[in-house]
UniProtKB/TrEMBL annotation, chain A:
Taxon lineage: Eukaryota, Fungi, Dikarya, Ascomycota, Pezizomycotina
Top-level taxonomic group: Eukaryota
Cross-referenced Pfam families: UQ_con
Annotated catalysed reactions: [E1 NEDD8-activating enzyme]-S-[NEDD8 protein]-yl-L-cysteine + [E2 NEDD8-conjugating enzyme]-L-cysteine = [E1 NEDD8-activating enzyme]-L-cysteine + [E2 NEDD8-conjugating enzyme]-S-[NEDD8-protein]-yl-L-cysteine
Pathway the protein acts in: Protein modification; protein neddylation
UniProt name for this protein: NEDD8-conjugating enzyme UBC12
Active site: C109 (glycyl thioester intermediate)
From TrEMBL, chain B:
Domain RING-type: 35-78
Family label: Belongs to the RING-box family.
Keyword field contains Cell cycle: yes
Pfam families, alphabetized: zf-ANAPC11
Signal peptide: none
Source organism: Ascobolus immersus RN42
Coiled-coil ranges (or none): none
Official protein name in the record: Anaphase-promoting complex subunit 11
Keywords: Cell cycle, Cell division, Metal-binding, Mitosis, Nucleus, Ubl conjugation pathway, Zinc, Zinc-finger
SMART domains: RING
GO CC, one annotated term: anaphase-promoting complex
GO biological process: anaphase-promoting complex-dependent catabolic process; cell division
Main location: nucleus
Pathway annotation from the record: Protein modification; protein ubiquitination
Amino acid sequence: MLKIWHMKQKQVAADAAEGPAKRRVTAAQLRAQKDITEISLPSTMKMDFPDPDDILNFTLTIEPDEGLYRGGSFEFTFAIGSQFPHEPPKVKCKQKIYHPNIDIEGNVCLNILREDWKPVLNLNAVIVGLQYLFLEPNPLDPLNKEAAEDLKNSKDMFARNVRSSMQGGYVRSERFDDVRKR
Amino acid sequence: MKVHVQKYSAVATWKWDVAEDEVCGICRVQFDGTCPSCKYPGEDCPLLVGKCGHSFHMHCIFDWIGTESSKGLCPMCRQKFEFEES
C-alpha cells in the first residue's frame, strides 16, 4: 500500500543486519549533552572535562563569594551513569571539608541527589543545589553530625571551625584539607 | 473541459497534538522526535498523557515508573502517574 511502510521495513531490516553495536551515542550521553549546553555558570563556578571525549565525567569547582565558606575553592566530581536521567549523577567532594551536609569521605547530602531526584531535573539544578549548600549549610539533614551540632549550638563557633578547617587545620581531632583559593 | 486523473500520489504528514516546541521532560527530545531508545518516530514510539496533564514518550515514562525511586509518581508534579487506557 503505502510506499513509506515498505521503506521503513527495509530500513528496520537493514538495521537488524548491522546489529545493535552500531549505536554509539547512549541515551545518557544525549541527555547529558543537552543539559551541559544549558548550564549557565556564574563567575563563582567552573567546569572541567579531564577527558574532552567523555562528557559523562567532569569536575565542578565552586568558589563561594559570600557566606561562611567564602574564599574556599571546593572541587566536586560528577559521574553520570548509564541510567541517567532515571538515576541522579553521582557527585562527590574531592576534598575533606567540614560541612554539615558533606561527610569526610566527600559524600554529599542534597535531597535532589538522593530521594528527591526525578528525571525532569537537570544538571543545572544539581549545580545550583550544591552552591546553595555553601551559602546555607543545613543542620537538619546532616551527614557530618558533629558539624551539624556545632551549627545548631552556636553559629559563631561553627563559623570559627569552618575558618580553621578551610586552612587545613583541625576541628576536634579531625584534620581537614586546605581549600583556600589560590 | 474534462480532466481524467490517471494517477496521483497522496502525501500526508502527521504530528502529535501538543505544543510545537514541547519536549519530553525525561529525555528532552521534542515529542515529534523519538525517545533515545527508538530510531524512528511515530506509532512505535508514542506519547503518553498522564491524568495530571504531563506528557512523555511512553518508553521514557515507563523506564522511570519502572525504577524503584520513582514510587510511581509523575516526574513533573509528583502526583501518582496515571493515564487513560485507550
